[in-house]
Amino acid sequence: MANQLTDTVGLDVPLEKLWRFFSTAQNLAPLTPPDQKLRVGKGGDTPIAPGLEIEISVAPMLGIRAGWLTRIVEVHGPEQGLEQAWFKDIQEAGPFAQWDHVHAFRALPGGGTAVMDRVEYRLPAGKLGQAVAGFWVRRQVEGLFTYRRAALHKMFGEAQLPEEWAGGWTLPRHSAPPAS
Q1: In which order are the strands placed within the sheet that holds 64-76?
Q2: Which secondary structure element, helix H or strand E, spans residue 43, and what is its range?
Q3: Domain regions of the chain by residue span
Q4: pLDDT at residue 12 above 90?
Q5: Backbone angles phi, psi at 100, to 5 degrees
Q6: What are φ and ψ of residue 123, in 5° steps?
């Protein structure tokens, strides 16, 4: 069974500017708690596109470094004329049995941009992995998004998020463009 976590935030910055910021993985660094010791490697300075692979590593526990290979599988940028933009990355190799992460952006009615992160993940070793580490991992992921929200507010300013968007929103259905 997969775990799901959704986090939304309203920011006082135009969608296009925020999209440019999120379009390269190297910008993850200021959004990641320092105790995670994030390193962004190959692919981190390349603008996102379907098929892009990005190497990162973190050391969330006792300084033990875990490598992570993520692949961008879907990109719908604001230049496509949609009311919202989003991209999806998945873990190809790393500490999770599954990690699917959607980053979505939507212009706010009063100006600014709503940002939604939706993560669906499964731990290795099935029910045993969930029983042993599920609570700790959920707290880590929630802590990451709490830190990210505060960092984004500091960088871009806070904007009022409509109440109906607070729990996230549904993305339009599109077929993913073919991976390169």
Answers
A1: 3-11, 113-122, 98-107, 84-93, 64-76, 53-61, 39-40
A2: none
A3: 3-165
A4: yes
A5: -115, 125
A6: -85, 155
Q: In sequence order, which ranges of the chain are alpha helices (DSSP H)?
A: 15-22, 126-156
Residue 126 burial (10 A CB sphere; 0-12, 13-18, 19+): exposed
> HSE-up of 105 (CA within 13 Å, CB side)?
27
List the beta strands (DSSP E) in the chain.
3-11, 39-40, 53-61, 64-76, 84-93, 98-107, 113-122
Q: What CATH homologous superfamily does 3-165 map to?
A: START domain (3.30.530.20)
CA distances from 83 to 78, 125, 166 (A): 8, 40, 18
Single pTM value for the model: 0.87
Chain segment 92-141, per-residue pLDDT in tens:
998 888 999 999 999 999 899 999 999 998 888 778 766 777 677 788 88
Determine the Cα–Cα distance for residues 89 and 30; give it in Å rounded to an integer: 19
